[in-house]
Amino acid sequence: MKTTITQVPAYEGQVVTIGAWLANKRSSGKIAFLQLRDGTGFIQGVVAKSDVTEDVFQLAKNMTQESSMYISGTIVEDKRSPFGYEMQVSDIQLIQEAVDYPITPKEHGTEFLMDHRHLWLRSSRQHAIMKIRNEIIRATYQFFNDQGYVKVDPPILTGSSAEGTTELFHTQYFDEEAYLSQSGQLYMEAAAMAFGKVFSFGPTFRAEKSKTRRHLIEFWMIEPEMAFVDHEESLEIQEQYVSFVIQSVLENCQLELDTLGRDTSKLEAIKAPFPRISYDDAIALLKDKGFTDIEWGEDFGAPHETAIAESFEKPVFITNYPAAIKAFYMKPDPARPEVVLCADLIAPEGYGEVIGGSQRIDDLTLMEQRYEEHNLSGPAYKWYLELRQYGSVPHSGFGLGLERTVAWIAGVDHVRETIPFPRLLNRLYP
Ligand code: 4AD
Ligand code: MG
């Protein structure tokens, strides 16, 4: 019976065949222990000299790392392994012998591993991170589908900029200039006026010269947009969504979290509601914490965000930033127009901003005024104004950065390990 590693619990006591690679190996005299992986999981294969032919035993003993095979044997329970089962091997058919696999079980430098990312993805740590990423994606679709959202796909090639013009990738679009999308938001606003509640999930691009553990040049963003939803209501959706994702990972990725050594007690506490702190109060808090020269009107950097997050167990919303340091489309607070109805969600444990969101300007005249102030002109932006002309309604939305969320939940230091093939300031390979 041909099966996969994650399916073997159903075959306890039976002989099965698995297509696998050799991850690691140990042998002594009459026995060899093969650490096998097949993509779905990891299992130990025990090859006893007395159970197999001499050829098979020699093959097992001399097998090189990452060689591929079909391996057959009886599935037995093994209380000592985290997976709970092992295989008592009866036969091995080698598919290909791998010679000099470059990533050995010893320590390697990060640059070396990044150069071999196409192979590094096979390691148990990278495997665990990608499985958690996959679970976050799955839970995202479940959450928004269950709540009646429609998935809408905004374009990647665009003629307009959503998040400021300095971080755009320019490209030629026949005889026009185009950009790679920084955010699908503007298009999602159009979609919300057509479908009510929508979300997108796609790649976004920022030509940012930032070389930090939180920045990627290409990253994936989940962008919900809701008609007839104000800022406060949007915050409730955000905390519900993030809580749901965390609880889903805790439920479905226990093995992966174990592999990564993640302290899950910190995640178990992440349940809605989340605390909120205004930008004004955040400034005061920072001054208290020793950032004496920060002034009202300045944006927060990573050290500021980390210091603010330290005061809370759960993620914290920093709300109502000064209009001058936020995007052109954010709605001013009617009671205090120098600040906008927005929030950044800051993850605990120093993982930084995972969500940026706001209520959007719905008034045509005010939006036209913002266009002037931000030098947004030309046909590329005309359609966005028309959304305020024909049945404009209050609406809000947000963007959650997938890789920063994976880094936080998986407890990984740098976002480069949270996406299969990271695009970084100095890296387009592999
Ligand atoms: O705060 P940002 O720039 O917001 C927007 O793009 C809005 N248009 C979203 C919306 O309202 N629909 O980006 C949102 C999130 C950030 O909080 C962060 O998690 C992630 O995207 N992000 C990045 N992740 C990795 N590398 C980068 N360079 C990132 N820039 C933003
Ligand atoms: Mg932001």
UniProtKB/TrEMBL annotation:
Its main location: cytoplasm. It comes from the Bacteria. Keywords: Aminoacyl-tRNA synthetase, ATP-binding, Cytoplasm, Ligase, Nucleotide-binding, Protein biosynthesis. One of its GO terms (cellular component) is cytoplasm. CDD domains: AsnRS_cyto_like_N, AsxRS_core. One of its GO terms (biological process) is asparaginyl-tRNA aminoacylation. Pfam families: tRNA-synt_2 (PF00152), tRNA_anti-codon (PF01336). GO terms for molecular function: asparagine-tRNA ligase activity; ATP binding; catalytic activity, acting on a protein; nucleic acid binding; transferase activity. It is found in: Cytoplasm. Its EC number is 6.1.1.22. Residues 130-430 form the Aminoacyl-transfer RNA synthetases class-II family profile domain. InterPro entries: Aa-tRNA-synt_II, aa-tRNA-synth_II, aa-tRNA-synth_II/BPL/LPL, Asn-tRNA-ligase, Asp/Asn-tRNA-synth_IIb, NA-bd_OB-fold, NA-bd_OB_tRNA. It catalyses: tRNA(Asn) + L-asparagine + ATP = L-asparaginyl-tRNA(Asn) + AMP + diphosphate + H(+). Homodimer. PANTHER family: ASPARAGINE--TRNA LIGASE, MITOCHONDRIAL-RELATED, ASPARTYL/LYSYL-TRNA SYNTHETASE. This is Asparagine--tRNA ligase. It comes from Lentibacillus salicampi. The lineage of its organism: Bacteria, Bacillati, Bacillota, Bacilli, Bacillales.
